Amino acid sequence: MMKRIFLAAIVATFAAGSAFAEDTCESKAVGKDGKALAGAAKTSFMKKCKADACAPKAVSAEGKPLAGAAKNSFMKKCEVGA
């Protein structure tokens, strides 16, 4: 009986985790009319969305915002991974 409860809890955890993970730049790329963006509009949106997602993470080990080459390097790596 405990195994079933434990298994159900694990399945529910993964289901909830993937529901929260669905909010990506790709899923947000929708126009005002509700249709998916395409072409240059999608490219522009994706670039801005990834930059906006990475900007708050660009901080040093001391908690200070990165600047200059360090920020550029971090943003480039973050945007590729985002």
Termini Cα gap: 41 Å
Q: Strand-and-helix sequence, N→C?
A: HHHH
The number of strands is 0
Decide which structural class fits the backbone: mainly alpha
> What's the number of domains?
1
Strand content: under 5%
What percentage of residues falls in helices of 4 or more residues?
55-70%
Number of helices: 4
Description of the molecule:
The longest helix has 20 residues, at 2-21. This protein is flat. It has helices at 2-21, 25-28, 39-54, 68-81. It has 82 residues and is mostly helical. This is PsiF repeat-containing protein.
Sum this structure up briefly.
The protein is mainly alpha-helical. The protein contains 4 helices and no strands.
Name some characteristics of this structure:
82 residues; 4 helices
Topology:
Blueprint: H1 2-21, H2 25-28, H3 39-54, H4 68-81
